[in-house]
Amino acid sequence: MIDFVGKRAFYYMLSIAIMIPGLISLILPNGLQTGIEFSSGSSFTARFQQPVEENDLRKALTDFGHENSRVQRAGDRYLIRTDLIEGAAQTPPIGAAPPSQREDLEASLEQRFGPLVDVDGNQVHPSSSSPACRLRCRATSGARRRLP
Question: What residue spans define the domains of the chain?
Answer without folding.
Answer: 36-89+97-130
